[in-house]
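Oxidoreductase
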Amino acid sequence: MIYRKLGGIDVSVFALGAANFGGIGSSRKLLGQGETEAEAHALLDRAVALGINLIDTAGTYADGASEAIIGAWLASRGAAMRDRVLISSKVGLRGGLGRKHVFAEVDRSLARLRVDTLDFYLAHVPDPGTPWDDVLDSFLALVRAGKVRRFGLSNVTASDLWRCVAPRSGGPVGFGWVQNRFNLLEQDDAHNGVLEACAKLGLQYTPYSPLAGGLLSGRYAIAGDIPEGTRIGQRRDLYAKAWTPENAARVEQLKAKAAAHALSPSGLATWWLVHCPFVTSILVGARSPEQLEQLVTEASRLPASDDLWRSLTAPSTQE
């Protein structure tokens, strides 16, 4: 397993995303349609066995059930397990980033996770009603209170970064990294200023949705309407924009290159992210321990290849 520094802490290049523990993301309409507690615990066990030490969740995932499932797993595996894994959660998707709400939510997350401190905490989305300086003050207070070790930002734009990360007189730069959606089909951050801002401001980058909701698995024929009853169909609000003829052609190219290297399309798409020079850790999800192991194994075993990486990368990112 490759480990990289995130806020000075060693994290595995793969992080286990727990968005589908007990539901599908933060959708209240899809509660109960994700992994059961037993299935989630099996995934967590396999992740640790593979060397993954970072688990990513949020207070709104399955209305808190994701955190509760992780908390039950930690409690059942003994105190030593808490020393082996790092827990990351998020706040602000519902209720905003006002100080009172942030402090109440972090306590709820800590209680559900059955831990005293969150290793990482993110502002889930920007809050137009709360100035970034106020958000920074709240997060710094959480660190001083011992509730959080490091904190970052999710689902942000370049303008958000320039507003909230630039040093204030006499104050530290607290936000350490960005967690945005990024994959072979959704590379907006490569040309909308986010990656440029990260580089100039010294922020790290931990992308989520490495398979574009399953499009990069190669199991969908990207034509006609999005099929009902599928994971991508359940979250068409997130992925409908990627359902295009151009991306259909890109997936076919990925499948051909993956076959040439004896990999699955998912494995090669994740390998590409591992070798993106700006990526620290990639949030990966899976429906089963076997899927998780295959993805991590395939993405790890293919050596670095600049030619292959560039051949998969959209022209707009090769600047």
